[in-house]
Amino acid sequence: MSVHAWLVFAGFWALFVTTPGPNAVNCIANGMAFGLPRALWGVLGILTQAALFLTLSAAGVAALLATAPTAFFWAKLVGAAVLIGLGVRSWRAAGKPAVAREVSGRSIYGRAFLIATVNAKSVAGYLAAFTQFVEPGVPVWSQMWVIAPTALSLTALSYTGFTTLGALLGRLAMAAVLNRLVRRGLAVCFMLYGALLGLSAVAG
User: Fold this and answer.
1) Any alpha helices (H) in the chain, and if so which ranges?
2) How many angstroms separate the most distant Cα atoms in the chain?
């Protein structure tokens, strides 16, 4: 990959991971609920999903998925249902007093991995990366030595930033009313992303 191609890819990926979506909302919610150190388990979950998708994309699974519209349709509907369900659950929880909860790092990690995996934005991003930025005629795995570290580093920086923002909001939103409003706002985002994902699947 040339320097120019790398700069274009890095710019695309930076925009991809900093555009607010379900992953960003989950990171903010984790930061608010658990504080920065523990909430970083969520970032690790996103990075695991990113590493997995990068590997699968390089192996051609993403291209295969693009040629199987029926499978992609049902995957998007399942993802929509998961996001809406998380939103409804978060909305209900926002009505209760915010209390410190003992949640394991494994639970935070698993939830973040699930949200990242069912997120259609992730699939679209990896498809775009591997159809637009992988140079034809050059072995894919040799290009991965540049693509993977760039993508994972930018992903880690972005979602660590969202998690830190959530931790700061958690400190500022100590009043019960403000805390409830912020948490319900995040819940609405989950439901909205899920509804848009479902509508895009049906429209497609």
Assistant:
1) 3-18, 22-34, 36-58, 61-66, 69-94, 105-118, 120-132, 140-172, 176-203
2) 59
- CA angle, corner 140, sides to 134 and 145, nearest 5? 90
| Residue 80 in tokens | 């929509």
How many CA atoms within 13 Å lie on the side-chain side of 126? Answer: 28
CA angle 81/106/89 to nearest 5° reads: 30
**pLDDT per residue as tens digits for the range 136-161:** 667 777 778 888 899 899 999 999 99
Q: Which of 47, 54, 69, 17 is nearest to 130 (CA)?
A: 54
Residues 3, 123, 26, 191, CA torsion sign: positive
